[in-house]
Amino acid sequence: MTPEEARLYEKVENQIPLTEEEALWLYQNGRLAFLSALATLVRERLHNKNAYYNRNFHIEPTNICIYECAFCSFARKPGEPGGWEYSLEEIEAIAERYKGTGVTEVHIVGGVHPKRGIAYYAEMIRRIKRILPEIHVKAFTAVELKVMCARSRMSYREGLLALREAGLDSLPGGGAEIFHPDIRRQICATKASTEEWLQIHRTAHELGIPSNATMLYGHIETYEHRVHHMRLLRELQAETGGFNCFIPLKYRRENNSLWHVGEVSTIEDLKNYAVSRLYLHNIPHLKAYWPMIGVQTAQMSLAFGVDDLDGTIDDTTKIYSMAGVEAPGSLSTEMLEHLIRQAGYEAVERDSLYRPIQRAAAV
User: What is 3-349's CATH topology?
Assistant: First the structure.
């Protein structure tokens, strides 16, 4: 162990938050074995040997979108081949498939539709909850919410209150991408700004609606941009305490206009998980989203600070398959538990707020 590694190890062991400069040093100089040891120290202090998963499915109501983000392989313009717009009746039919299956969460995100506002999406939630009354609805990125509220002539607070009344339980973390303005101007200049994304999540937290946070990495950003992004999340978490989980999302290159930059290596993925766990000391959970990262890398990430592998998903998301990811579309609970135990951790089924779920044994 080098003198600088020893100093950082002692700091982390004493639960002293890292500075931006120290996080940058770990990105630039941290040896993979050291990062694994240090991140594991933090994740096991927070969660012991527990590694979490849930039973969930996704609804992507539409991929029709008013924006053209450089990294996106999912969005289509109205009338463009490959686009879809589910009706409320089709949404109900999707929910009906999950009656009696034991799922605990539905994750709803999609394109920013040019015509749909708060009333439409509130009705969507109500219909889902009539079919699945116990389901936790985690729905709508800040990017979607900004436009929904504007179209409905509502403030963020008014829009979120209306959705909460309809049954919204939490927000996903999408749309954050990279907060630094130099990068945001190049990859998603017209969508919700950094300040708007943070304000929508701040407002949700003030209303008692928890959320997740994400970071899209591995494209044109630098380590400095990643640390800046996480600093803003850490500051908001210190203010509100409303983030449950941080989810690094790897850029995938197929079928979008950033294809020429390629994709970062698995080593870079694992390094990014470790530094995220070490720097974001006040966000309790770190997730490896296996449909994006792949099953094997997700399993390895458990040794780099990750404590959550997301859920079963059941082949209900197209966001990453349209970008060229070849991960399976679903994983059974048995497979998720096998992956976790094979890595040396204890598999714990959770609800959307990370409370363990105990199920009766099959007879």
Answer: TIM Barrel (3.20.20)
Asked if 109 and 172 count as a contact pair (C-beta separation under 8 A), the reply is yes
- Write the CB contacts of 120 (distance below 8 Å, at least 6 apart in sequence): 88
Instruction: Summarize the confidence of residues 269-298 as an average pLDDT.
Output: 95
DSSP conformation class of 219: S
Structural tokens at position 29:
């100089």
Long-range contacts of 89-96 (CB under 8 A, 24+ apart): 91/59, 91/61, 91/124, 91/127, 91/128, 92/127, 92/128, 92/131, 94/57, 94/59, 94/316, 95/59, 95/127, 95/128, 95/131, 95/132, 95/135, 96/131
Residue whose tokens read 């079963």: 312
pLDDT in tens, 301-351: 999 999 999 888 776 555 544 544 455 567 888 999 999 999 999 999 999
For the chain, domain boundaries: 3-349
Residue 95 has pLDDT above 80, yes or no: yes
Q: Between vectors from CA 314 to CA 309 and to CA 315, what angle results, nearest 5°?
A: 105
Cβ atoms 336, 308 nearer than 8 A: no
Token pair belonging to 251: 């850029």
Asked if 42 and 249 touch (Cβ cutoff 8 Å), the reply is no
